[in-house]
Amino acid sequence: MSMHTPLKFVDSHCHLDMLDLAEFDNNMDNVIALAKHNQVYDILSISVDLDSFPRVLKTAKNYPNVHASVGLHPCHSPEILTSIEQLSALSKDKKVIAIGETGLDYFMNDGRDPLNENFEWQRERFRIHIRTAIETQKPLIIHTRDARDDTLKILQEEHAEKIGGIMHCFVEDLPTAEKALEMGFYISFSGIVTFKNAKSIQEVAKFVPDDRLLIETDSPYLAPVPMRGKKNQPAYVAHIAEFLAQLRNTSVESIARLTRDNYLRLFCLVNNS
């Protein structure tokens, strides 16, 4: 009888604090248990604002396989200010392993501001997060939408290669992926890669080296095929791994192993296999 190594997946980006717990009998234990039942052993719960950060951190502290990030999403209110000092202080807890979600999002511009001058606050906030990541030596979680040129430019200007991180929910083109990889970033794919109309993203997913590949749910958003249309959750990350295995002509076991190894290596976590 052959022995099979059990699958162990990682969800490198989700928002546990945004899940509708009513669907899980109002108990986060059920979310984590369901994830583990589906072989999801490591979860990174992402902060998008400082008001909700205490809840994100509390959840991470309640479960040994859950960690947290701290940061302000680029779409979060422009009047909310932060600093290197504030973010550094909030990141001191050992359960906080990343800075972000940060980056740039020009989606709402819709061509009305060709120079994106109204987004200077986003660019300044982004720089603060990068400087904090370098100072604290905690990798970045990068969000970019309709802003790839400025995102790459600021990452280069702020020497983000000194710390690296994750280009989360990657939906950009191959040249963008190549530049991010050159700066030491990992490329993470969400359920979007499983969509039929995501051919260009799928081409990038074929290209990313094994040692820079990650998977995520971005739950409660972007449920992968065959769960599309439902509210997403960490348990569904296996569907992304299965799709990538077919796309990259390899096994699900291989995708599970290398993406978890990459996650543990990036965040300097112990492999409790």
Give an overview in words.
The chain has about 270 residues and is an alpha/beta fold. It has a single domain, classed as Metal-dependent hydrolases (TIM Barrel, Alpha-Beta Barrel), CATH 3.20.20.140. Helices cover about 35% and strands about 15% of the residues. The chain is built from nine helices and eight strands. It has helices spanning about 30-35, 55-60, 85-90, 120-135, 150-155, 175-180, 200-205, 235-245, 250-265; strands spanning about 10-15, 40-45, 65-70, 95-105, 140-145, 165, 185-190, 215. It has an eight-stranded parallel beta sheet with strand order 1-2-3-4-5-6-7-8. Helix 4 crosses helix 5. It is globular and about 45 Å long. The chain starts with 8 loop residues before the first strand and ends in a 7-residue tail after the last helix.
Highlighted features:
alpha/beta; TIM Barrel; eight-stranded parallel sheet; 273 residues; 9 helices
**Helix-strand pattern, N to C?**
EHEHEHEHEHEHEHEHH
The proportion of residues forming helix, as a percent range, comes to: 25-40%
Average pLDDT number: 94
CATH class wording: Alpha Beta
CATH superfamily: Metal-dependent hydrolases
- Radius of gyration based on Cα positions: 18 Å
Low-confidence stretches: none
Distance between the termini: 22 Å
- Widest sheet: strand ordering: 1-2-3-4-5-6-7-8
Task: Give me the count of strands.
Answer: 8
Give the amount of beta strand, in percent: 15-25%
The structural class is alpha/beta
